[in-house]
Design a protein that fits this description.
The protein is 47% helix and 13% strand. With 219 residues, it is of the alpha/beta class. The chain folds into 2 domains: 128 residues, Response regulator (Rossmann fold); 64 residues, Arc Repressor Mutant, subunit A, CATH 1.10.10.10. Strand 4, helix 4 and strand 5 form a beta-alpha-beta unit.
Length: 219
Protein backbone atom coordinates (compact mmCIF):
# COMPACT_ATOMS: atom_id res chain seq x y z
CA UNK A 1 0.00 0.00 0.00
CA UNK A 2 1.50 3.30 -1.06
CA UNK A 3 1.78 6.10 1.54
CA UNK A 4 -0.68 8.98 1.63
CA UNK A 5 0.89 12.21 0.40
CA UNK A 6 -0.13 15.18 2.54
CA UNK A 7 0.03 18.91 1.86
CA UNK A 8 -0.31 21.44 4.69
CA UNK A 9 -1.44 25.05 4.28
CA UNK A 10 -1.02 27.11 7.46
CA UNK A 11 0.70 30.42 8.06
CA UNK A 12 1.92 29.48 11.56
CA UNK A 13 5.26 27.72 11.55
CA UNK A 14 4.71 26.10 14.94
CA UNK A 15 1.50 24.47 13.65
CA UNK A 16 3.27 23.17 10.56
CA UNK A 17 6.08 21.77 12.72
CA UNK A 18 3.60 20.15 15.09
CA UNK A 19 1.70 18.39 12.32
CA UNK A 20 4.96 17.35 10.71
CA UNK A 21 5.96 15.77 14.02
CA UNK A 22 2.68 13.84 14.13
CA UNK A 23 3.07 12.60 10.56
CA UNK A 24 6.71 11.63 11.00
CA UNK A 25 5.63 8.96 13.44
CA UNK A 26 3.42 7.36 10.80
CA UNK A 27 5.24 5.87 7.79
CA UNK A 28 1.94 5.52 5.91
CA UNK A 29 1.71 9.34 5.70
CA UNK A 30 4.28 11.58 4.03
CA UNK A 31 4.23 15.37 4.33
CA UNK A 32 5.30 16.23 0.80
CA UNK A 33 4.78 20.00 0.96
CA UNK A 34 3.80 22.87 3.23
CA UNK A 35 2.99 26.49 2.39
CA UNK A 36 1.87 29.57 4.32
CA UNK A 37 -0.83 31.13 2.11
CA UNK A 38 -3.94 30.18 0.17
CA UNK A 39 -2.49 31.36 -3.13
CA UNK A 40 0.70 29.34 -2.74
CA UNK A 41 -1.35 26.30 -1.80
CA UNK A 42 -3.59 26.55 -4.85
CA UNK A 43 -0.62 27.03 -7.15
CA UNK A 44 1.19 24.04 -5.65
CA UNK A 45 -1.89 21.83 -6.02
CA UNK A 46 -1.81 22.64 -9.73
CA UNK A 47 1.68 21.15 -9.90
CA UNK A 48 1.51 18.42 -7.28
CA UNK A 49 -1.98 17.39 -6.15
CA UNK A 50 -1.80 15.66 -2.74
CA UNK A 51 -3.85 12.71 -1.53
CA UNK A 52 -4.83 14.71 1.55
CA UNK A 53 -4.86 18.47 2.09
CA UNK A 54 -4.88 20.00 5.58
CA UNK A 55 -5.71 23.71 5.68
CA UNK A 56 -6.27 26.51 8.15
CA UNK A 57 -9.13 28.96 7.61
CA UNK A 58 -7.36 32.12 8.77
CA UNK A 59 -4.98 32.35 5.83
CA UNK A 60 -3.39 35.40 4.22
CA UNK A 61 -4.90 36.40 0.90
CA UNK A 62 -8.15 34.87 -0.27
CA UNK A 63 -8.77 33.03 3.01
CA UNK A 64 -9.52 29.40 3.73
CA UNK A 65 -13.21 29.27 2.77
CA UNK A 66 -12.63 30.75 -0.68
CA UNK A 67 -9.63 28.44 -1.15
CA UNK A 68 -11.86 25.47 -0.34
CA UNK A 69 -14.40 26.54 -2.96
CA UNK A 70 -11.77 26.92 -5.66
CA UNK A 71 -10.03 23.66 -4.84
CA UNK A 72 -13.22 21.60 -4.87
CA UNK A 73 -14.43 23.23 -8.07
CA UNK A 74 -11.24 22.21 -9.86
CA UNK A 75 -10.51 18.93 -8.05
CA UNK A 76 -13.82 17.56 -6.70
CA UNK A 77 -12.16 14.34 -5.53
CA UNK A 78 -9.59 16.13 -3.32
CA UNK A 79 -9.84 15.13 0.35
CA UNK A 80 -9.57 18.20 2.59
CA UNK A 81 -9.35 18.52 6.36
CA UNK A 82 -9.78 21.92 8.01
CA UNK A 83 -7.54 22.45 11.05
CA UNK A 84 -8.64 25.68 12.73
CA UNK A 85 -8.69 27.56 16.00
CA UNK A 86 -12.36 28.44 15.35
CA UNK A 87 -15.24 26.42 16.77
CA UNK A 88 -18.01 28.74 15.58
CA UNK A 89 -20.88 26.66 14.11
CA UNK A 90 -21.31 29.04 11.18
CA UNK A 91 -17.68 28.65 10.12
CA UNK A 92 -17.91 24.87 10.41
CA UNK A 93 -21.06 24.96 8.30
CA UNK A 94 -19.44 27.17 5.65
CA UNK A 95 -16.31 25.03 5.52
CA UNK A 96 -18.24 21.78 5.01
CA UNK A 97 -20.46 23.40 2.41
CA UNK A 98 -17.39 24.71 0.60
CA UNK A 99 -15.95 21.21 0.31
CA UNK A 100 -14.10 20.23 3.49
CA UNK A 101 -14.55 16.58 4.38
CA UNK A 102 -13.50 17.08 8.00
CA UNK A 103 -13.18 19.89 10.54
CA UNK A 104 -10.84 19.70 13.53
CA UNK A 105 -10.08 22.41 16.07
CA UNK A 106 -6.51 23.14 17.10
CA UNK A 107 -7.51 22.61 20.72
CA UNK A 108 -8.18 18.93 19.95
CA UNK A 109 -6.10 16.23 21.59
CA UNK A 110 -3.30 14.63 19.59
CA UNK A 111 -5.24 11.35 19.27
CA UNK A 112 -8.22 13.18 17.80
CA UNK A 113 -5.99 14.89 15.24
CA UNK A 114 -4.51 11.53 14.21
CA UNK A 115 -7.99 10.00 13.96
CA UNK A 116 -9.13 12.96 11.84
CA UNK A 117 -6.20 12.59 9.45
CA UNK A 118 -6.84 8.85 9.05
CA UNK A 119 -10.59 9.27 8.57
CA UNK A 120 -10.22 12.06 6.01
CA UNK A 121 -7.59 10.13 4.05
CA UNK A 122 -10.07 7.24 3.83
CA UNK A 123 -12.80 9.55 2.54
CA UNK A 124 -14.78 9.59 5.79
CA UNK A 125 -16.09 12.69 7.51
CA UNK A 126 -14.66 13.59 10.90
CA UNK A 127 -15.76 16.38 13.24
CA UNK A 128 -13.60 16.88 16.33
CA UNK A 129 -15.26 15.86 19.63
CA UNK A 130 -15.66 19.44 20.85
CA UNK A 131 -17.85 20.11 17.80
CA UNK A 132 -20.07 17.05 18.01
CA UNK A 133 -23.06 19.23 18.82
CA UNK A 134 -22.83 20.32 15.18
CA UNK A 135 -24.47 17.46 13.31
CA UNK A 136 -23.63 17.61 9.62
CA UNK A 137 -23.43 21.39 10.07
CA UNK A 138 -27.22 21.73 10.25
CA UNK A 139 -27.84 22.55 13.90
CA UNK A 140 -30.32 25.02 15.29
CA UNK A 141 -27.40 26.98 16.80
CA UNK A 142 -25.99 27.46 13.34
CA UNK A 143 -29.39 28.52 11.98
CA UNK A 144 -29.83 31.04 14.77
CA UNK A 145 -26.42 32.63 14.38
CA UNK A 146 -26.58 36.20 13.04
CA UNK A 147 -23.46 35.39 11.03
CA UNK A 148 -25.51 33.16 8.72
CA UNK A 149 -26.62 36.31 6.91
CA UNK A 150 -23.05 37.19 5.89
CA UNK A 151 -21.51 36.14 2.59
CA UNK A 152 -18.14 34.35 2.57
CA UNK A 153 -16.35 37.63 1.82
CA UNK A 154 -18.27 39.51 4.52
CA UNK A 155 -17.57 36.79 7.08
CA UNK A 156 -13.83 37.01 6.39
CA UNK A 157 -13.84 40.83 6.58
CA UNK A 158 -15.81 40.60 9.83
CA UNK A 159 -13.28 38.16 11.26
CA UNK A 160 -10.25 40.22 10.26
CA UNK A 161 -11.77 43.47 11.49
CA UNK A 162 -12.66 42.08 14.90
CA UNK A 163 -9.20 40.63 15.52
CA UNK A 164 -7.65 44.05 15.02
CA UNK A 165 -6.85 44.53 11.33
CA UNK A 166 -7.35 48.00 9.86
CA UNK A 167 -9.23 48.57 6.61
CA UNK A 168 -6.03 48.88 4.59
CA UNK A 169 -4.60 45.68 6.07
CA UNK A 170 -7.77 43.77 5.27
CA UNK A 171 -7.65 45.07 1.70
CA UNK A 172 -4.07 43.85 1.28
CA UNK A 173 -4.79 40.42 2.78
CA UNK A 174 -7.87 39.86 0.63
CA UNK A 175 -6.56 41.49 -2.56
CA UNK A 176 -9.44 43.96 -2.77
CA UNK A 177 -9.60 47.74 -2.54
CA UNK A 178 -9.90 49.63 0.74
CA UNK A 179 -13.12 51.16 -0.60
CA UNK A 180 -14.57 47.69 -1.12
CA UNK A 181 -13.64 46.77 2.45
CA UNK A 182 -15.27 49.93 3.82
CA UNK A 183 -18.43 49.32 1.82
CA UNK A 184 -18.58 45.74 3.08
CA UNK A 185 -18.09 46.83 6.69
CA UNK A 186 -21.11 49.11 6.33
CA UNK A 187 -23.15 46.22 4.90
CA UNK A 188 -21.97 43.91 7.69
CA UNK A 189 -23.03 46.39 10.40
CA UNK A 190 -26.43 46.76 8.77
CA UNK A 191 -26.95 43.00 8.46
CA UNK A 192 -25.88 42.42 12.07
CA UNK A 193 -27.81 45.45 13.35
CA UNK A 194 -24.82 47.09 15.04
CA UNK A 195 -23.45 50.61 14.71
CA UNK A 196 -19.83 50.34 15.82
CA UNK A 197 -16.73 48.18 15.54
CA UNK A 198 -16.85 47.80 19.33
CA UNK A 199 -20.24 46.07 19.02
CA UNK A 200 -18.86 43.86 16.24
CA UNK A 201 -16.03 42.76 18.53
CA UNK A 202 -18.48 41.81 21.29
CA UNK A 203 -20.49 39.82 18.76
CA UNK A 204 -17.33 38.08 17.53
CA UNK A 205 -16.46 37.08 21.09
CA UNK A 206 -19.97 35.74 21.66
CA UNK A 207 -19.85 33.78 18.38
CA UNK A 208 -16.42 32.28 19.15
CA UNK A 209 -14.50 34.13 16.43
CA UNK A 210 -12.05 35.73 18.85
CA UNK A 211 -10.16 33.00 20.65
CA UNK A 212 -6.73 32.22 22.01
CA UNK A 213 -4.87 29.76 19.82
CA UNK A 214 -4.22 26.49 21.64
CA UNK A 215 -1.50 24.11 20.58
CA UNK A 216 -2.50 20.46 20.92
CA UNK A 217 0.66 18.64 19.95
CA UNK A 218 1.95 17.92 23.45
CA UNK A 219 -1.33 16.62 24.81
Amino acid sequence: MKPCHVMLIDDHQIIREGLQNILEGRPDYILTSEVDSAEKGYELCSKQLPDLLIIDLALPGMGGIELLRRLKKRWPELKIMVFSIYSNPQLVKRAIEAGALSYVTKSSARNSIIEAIESTAQGCRFISPDLLNISDNRTSASKQSPLQHLTVKELEIFRLLTIGHATGEIALRMFISAKTVSNNISIIKKKLNVSSTHELIHLAIREGLIVNEALPFDK
